[in-house]
Amino acid sequence: MINAARSVAIAELLYRLGPALRRADVIGATLTCSLHADDSNQLATVSHSTLSADVAAALELDRRALVEVTVNIESDGEPAGIVVLAIELQY
Question: Where are the domains of the chain?
Answer without folding.
Answer: 2-90
